[in-house]
Structures are given as C-alpha cells and as structure tokens.
Amino acid sequence: MINFKFDSNRPIYIQLVEQLELYIISGKVPPGERLPSVRDLALAAKVNPNTMQRALTELEDLKLIYTERTNGKFVTTDRKRLQKHREKFATSKIQTFLAEMQSLGIDQPTILKILSKGGKKL
C-alpha cells in the first residue's frame, strides 16, 4: 500500500493523483493488477472517499486505470501508455531540477559535472 504524504499548500486530490500515478508508472502495481477499493485507499490516505474517487476518476481519464463493473479498478495493461507517462513524469522532474539549478546560478557544464559524479561534491 502507498505511504501517502501531503503538502498543505496544494489540493489533496491533485497530490493523490500524482502519488497514485507515480505508484502505477513505477511498476509498484503491475499492469492488470486490481487496485484496493476506494474506501481502502481513502482509509490509507486518511481522506474522504469522495476525494479519493475524484483522484481515481482523473487516473481513469489519463487511461492509467480502468474500471470493471462490480470487479473494481485495475491498472492498465497498455505498457506503451505506462512508458509514455513514465517518460513524461521524468521529463517534468528534470525540467524542475534544471530550473532550480539555473535559479542558483549553476551553468549546464557544472550541472553535468555534478551529475557525472553521482551528486557527490566536486
């Protein structure tokens, strides 16, 4: 089960979507696997079931999960879609990282040096 963590400065349902998306695209829930019930997920996240349902609806809109009537919600089996979301997520994180480095005044060659050393001191 996911260990949900929330930032009080952002809407909870958006954070739920992000955390569930990461959980799915990282492979912690294999393609085709059934997700816990809305109530169980809401309990684990300590949120209202309606809030959790809203987040799951968003994931369905992204086609990362699907619903089988009376059987529950499942992770998509479309591996290309999962890979596409994984790449989109990684690109977003990299863009954020690069923007933060630029705001610190660190140029690209220095960033590359730091990365080549695995983040250790130069």
Question: Can you describe this structure?
Answer:
- The chain has 122 residues and is mostly helical.
- It has two domains: 12-77, Winged helix-like DNA-binding domain superfamily/Winged helix DNA-binding domain (Arc Repressor Mutant, subunit A); 80-116.
- Helix content is 57%, strand content 7%.
- It has five helices and two strands.
- A two-stranded antiparallel ribbon has the order 1-2.
- The longest helix has 25 residues, at 79-103.
What's the gyration radius in Å?
18 Å
Instruction: Tell me the CATH superfamily of the largest domain.
Output: Winged helix-like DNA-binding domain superfamily/Winged helix DNA-binding domain
Strand residues, percent: 5-15%
Q: Biggest sheet, in brief?
A: 2 strands, antiparallel
The share of residues in helices is 55-70%
Distance between the termini: 38 Å
Would you state the CATH class of the largest domain? Mainly Alpha
Number of strands: 2
What's the domain count? 2
What is the CATH architecture descriptor of the largest domain? Orthogonal Bundle
N-to-C series of helices and strands: HHHEEHH
Mean pLDDT, as a whole number? 93
